């Protein structure tokens, strides 16, 4: 089998498809040397093709898949040596280690090596988490951290005479799902074998520092699993321990200690190893390895740019997820340290840098709690702090994880808690992680009853509106959810070319905003969809189609005056990146009908699984300016 191509400069055909028998836990000299060569080859390949993601701007993750190569190579040999004994799938509860799945698909001849250099790019079918049915050779969808072990308990129940492996991590093991999975695996004596990379690194820090007392091994032993710890880089001992686990009955956890990205100069043992390796660090590694063709390829990559020029918005790009933290700091600065400690508590879930909470951490560490990958528990802790009138809990994570907190949101409401929540990475923009990390179902947070404790959903359109929104709602009671995107957004301009949310602007909760007046009909939008809608409206006006645009930054409150205004127009089109089934559009038509308002109505939103890449997600869903323009023309006939 030849899997080297002109566009993949590492000769993967050098991988030797060795077969090992778990009944023999001792490696021969030849087997050991073959495994070592395979490990080095795979690690070189992972450094190279994940670095193409860094070079092309789509990001990715290097350290996790790089770490676990020894385990994966051994499992691959065991699957080949005793095929009837195993479910031959590299199930992995740390889905961002997707490079493992892609590399093994190539080595098994199910995916071409040349495809790997398009890692995470739009249309390449190599998203940031594995998706079953999308990528040849990928045999499962991983979803988010900590979701696979509970799932493969069912796989083990369906295959009672076979061993099922789960590649785990110390980060994934912080999720509450795994505690439930452990109890079932032990109770039913399931033949599940966990192989856990315990490298003491997650996105924002080191678990040994932010969760002192937490031990993966002790926790799993406490649930009743057989646990053994060892050095993940000691090949002979690693193989022996895996064989011991395989030949033992029931659930076993192998906890493998090692530094993150061991041997990669500049990122070994650091949090930087969690993410994609920077191109310069990869080049240094590959040069040291003598892989000059791989170096030449990396240096030749040009980062693609979106050449579309948006009109109706300015050139001041702002990162709303960062501005959230800056705006909170601005409010906190006006309180004394005593007041801050008494009234405010911010709880992170290992994503402070991604959600802007690091700004709060840096400025006011006295009210900041660094916590683990435990979204449900951390949200509830923030809600508990905010139970007393006058106190505010602050919580932040990715919007995709809001779905995991729905029950806790209900409990916070029933306990009259005051929580200011920031869910970043909403929608689909710049989301190379793809479908499982889309923030689509944010309206799930609005799950209370009409007479329940107040819940408000806000989605500012640009940095100035984000700052004004935080200022306006910070001290309000109830549950306040503020959403932002992974991508930066430009400043929105009014019809005169001035900043819509410029000097003197005040955010009024519950009020919609006229961005452009129009007589042909109105588009309703918000968040990062708004500047795309402005562009569409401006281009339609140039074509003689006088369409108006409304910004609805408070998503779940009806502005009766604005609803009456747009309801008298010839058409209403809702444009959003939320799920078409659960987003604003799924409600807006009902609001109109309930008031006897019957314009033509349509709704554009995310309606299919993603295509990878960054800005490319928008046109793929048909919610880019071209898609909006086409829909308007369809409505006006």
Largest sheet: 6 strands, parallel
Structural class: alpha/beta
The total tally of domains equals: 2
Shape: globular
Strand order of the biggest β-sheet: 7-6-8-9-11-10
Report helical residue fraction: 25-40%
CATH A-level architecture of the largest domain: 3-Layer(aba) Sandwich
Report mean pLDDT, rounded to a whole number.
Answer: 97
| CATH homology superfamily name of the largest domain | Thiamin diphosphate (ThDP)-binding fold, Pyr/PP domains
Q: What integer value in Å does the Rg equal?
A: 26 Å
Strand content: 5-15%
How far apart are the termini? 57 Å
Unreliable spans: 1-5
What is the CATH C-level name of the largest domain? Alpha Beta
Pfam family, one: Transketolase_N
Organism: Brasilonema sennae CENA114
Family: Belongs to the transketolase family.
Domain Transketolase-like pyrimidine-binding: 318-491
